């Protein structure tokens, strides 16, 4: 038990690293304590809840078990996965002293930095787990999609470590904008196919209808799924959205919680960017678990791009996870599986749907969502890079934007809030976007209601 007044005696270091003894040995499953659980997946043909066994045709069996687990609050991390985490974790929780000084704010700002590994993002936390379980099942191949490229890179690293074959369908526009990502994936032994491609039926169909398309995550998912379905030694894996991915990402939140307890840091606000929701869901997991049980009153903020405003302007409805309508129906916030974001949008976070766990929590009022414009995001990224030294990923910079906004509010009100944000990765492969910000050619695009309406028209009638 900590005595009152101890707080000021333990000075918080610039970087908090946990020792090997302190690192978490379990993931945290928020679903176990959620009052309203996410709705079940539905079979699109029958509109009945989808049995586990059907999903196991497409996905790794243990991951399906985790996906359907809404009873165990703590799930042990197997030794074989901790072997991998040992190379890349723990990640540091860093006190943004220099940013605080630059902003002249009374707020304390911390960031949990997931960009210290070669893949440059948090995606490795789930990639390692997924490939480990695939290996355990005796599978030999995996397929997946990647948008900005971080997931493909992370998965290629994990497949190299556990020795599995990997084919990555990479959104065509990203493959063009980020040739170096492709090079990294190939170096780790992964095969990269720009999507839509002529290697699958669904890809050929999309190309026929729209030959010049730059692709989308939705298309790439359909292609990767099609390939996995045709080979019994192959499964499809994905890097966000699904409950089991959030579960693996809870390692971020668990480490953060332990670091906070060690130095008696009590967060008032926790901020993360949201694409499919995995890093934000993982970062907040144990804190949200406590909030649901009435043990804290932390203000959580999920930040999304104004050009792909899934939470702030989407509908809470059953939808497909992909453009080709091959996935089960998922109850989530969505812009419609037919939504294709504006091509001027630079960095990640462009998926039409959202994690079912986060969708339910958002629907029930447990956190706030904010949409921000990309020029404002890059302005924040630049400020952050110049004072904290790290070149942040554009995705992560959505969280930086709102952390800065919150810290500036504290400056006005004099409040001494403690803010924690997730800094999900580095921006070395996003220099095209930084270049367009630097030369002033970057623009903002906010879809009109009519444009969003087109996406909503693709929603299945359930
Ligand atoms: C993939 C990615 C994201 C967004 O995905 P989530 O599942 O919402 O976390 C954010 N930041 C980085 C660096 C990423 O690679």
Structural descriptors:
16% strand, Rossmann fold, four-stranded parallel beta sheet, 462 residues, single chain, 2 domains, seven-stranded mixed beta sheet, alpha/beta
Molecular structure report:
The protein has helices at residues 52-55, 61-67, 79-88, 97-103, 124-136, 150-162, 172-177, 179-187, 201-209, 217-229, 243-262, 278-292, 310-313, 356-363, 374-388, 394-413, 431-438, 449-457, and strands spanning 15-16, 26-28, 74-76, 93-95, 108-113, 141-146, 165-171, 191-195, 234-236, 269-273, 299-305, 315-320, 329-334, 368-372, 418-423. By secondary structure, the protein is an alpha/beta fold. The strands form four sheets. A seven-stranded mixed beta sheet has the order 1-4-5-15-10-11-14, with helices on both faces. Strands 8-7-6-9 form a four-stranded parallel beta sheet, sandwiched between helices. Helix 4 crosses helix 15 and helix 9 (201-209) runs antiparallel to helix 10. It is globular. Mean pLDDT is 94; it is low at 1-8. Bound molecules: pyridoxal-5'-phosphate (PLP). Pyridoxal-5'-phosphate binds next to helix 12 and helix 16.
The unreliable regions are 1-8
| Order of neighbouring strands in the sheet with most strands | 1-4-5-15-10-11-14
CATH class of the largest domain: Alpha Beta
Proportion of residues in helical segments: 40-55%
Round the Cα radius of gyration to an integer and report it: 21 Å
CATH fold group of the largest domain: Rossmann fold
**Total number of domains:** 2
What CATH architecture of the largest domain do you see?
Answer: 3-Layer(aba) Sandwich
| Helix count from the secondary structure assignment | 18
Average pLDDT reading: 94
Kindly name the structural category: alpha/beta
Task: Tell me the number of strands.
Answer: 15
């Amino acid at each position: 038990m900590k005595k009152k007044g101890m707080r000021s005696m333990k000075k918080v270091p610039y970087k908090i690293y946990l020792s090997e003894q302190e690192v978490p040995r379990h993931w945290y499953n928020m679903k176990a304590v959620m009052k309203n659980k996410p709705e079940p997946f539905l079979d699109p043909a029958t509109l009945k809840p989808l049995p586990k066994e059907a999903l196991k045709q497409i996905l790794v069996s243990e991951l399906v078990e985790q996906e359907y687990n809404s009873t165990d609050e703590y799930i042990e991390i197997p030794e074989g996965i901790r072997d991998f985490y040992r190379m890349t974790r723990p990640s540091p929780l860093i006190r943004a002293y220099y940013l605080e000084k630059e902003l002249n704010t009374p707020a304390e700002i911390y960031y949990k930095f997931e960009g210290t590994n070669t893949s440059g993002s948090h995606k490795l936390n789930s990639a390692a787990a997924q490939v480990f379980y695939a290996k355990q099942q005796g599978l030999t191949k995996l397929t997946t999609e990647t948008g900005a490229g971080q997931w493909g890179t992370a998965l290629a690293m994990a497949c190299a470590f556990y020795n599995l074959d990997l084919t990555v369908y990479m959104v065509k526009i990203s493959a063009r904008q980020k040739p170096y990502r492709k090079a990294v994936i190939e170096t780790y032994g992964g095969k990269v196919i720009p999507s839509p491609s002529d290697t699958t039926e669904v890809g050929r169909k999309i190309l026929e209808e729209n030959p010049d398309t730059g692709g989308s995550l939705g298309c790439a998912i359909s292609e990767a799924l099609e390939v996995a379905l045709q080979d019994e030694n192959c499964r499809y894996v994905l890097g966000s959205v699904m409950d089991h991915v959030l579960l693996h990402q809870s390692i971020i939140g668990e480490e953060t919680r332990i670091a906070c307890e060690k130095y008696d840091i009590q967060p008032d606000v926790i901020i993360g960017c949201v694409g499919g929701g995995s890093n934000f869901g993982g970062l907040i997991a144990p804190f949200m678990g406590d909030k649901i049980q009435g043990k804290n009153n932390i203000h959580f903020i999920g930040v999304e791009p104004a050009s792909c405003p899934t939470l702030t302007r989407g509908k809470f409805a059953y939808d497909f996870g992909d453009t080709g309508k091959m996935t089960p129906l998922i109850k989530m916030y969505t812009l419609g599986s037919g939504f294709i974001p504006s091509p001027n949008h630079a960095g990640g976070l462009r998926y039409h749907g959202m994690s079912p766990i986060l969708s339910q929590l958002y629907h029930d009022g447990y956190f706030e969502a904010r949409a921000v414009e990309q020029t404002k995001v890059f302005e924040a990224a630049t400020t952050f890079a110049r004072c904290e030294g790290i070149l942040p990923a554009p995705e992560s910079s959505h969280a930086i934007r709102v952390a800065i906004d919150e810290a500036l509010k504290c400056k006005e009100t004099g409040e001494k809030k403690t803010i924690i944000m997730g800094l999900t990765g580095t921006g070395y492969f996003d220099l095209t976007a930084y270049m367009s910000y630097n030369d002033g050619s970057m623009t903002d695009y906010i879809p009109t209601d009519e444009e969003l309406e087109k996406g909503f028209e693709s929603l299945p009638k359930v």
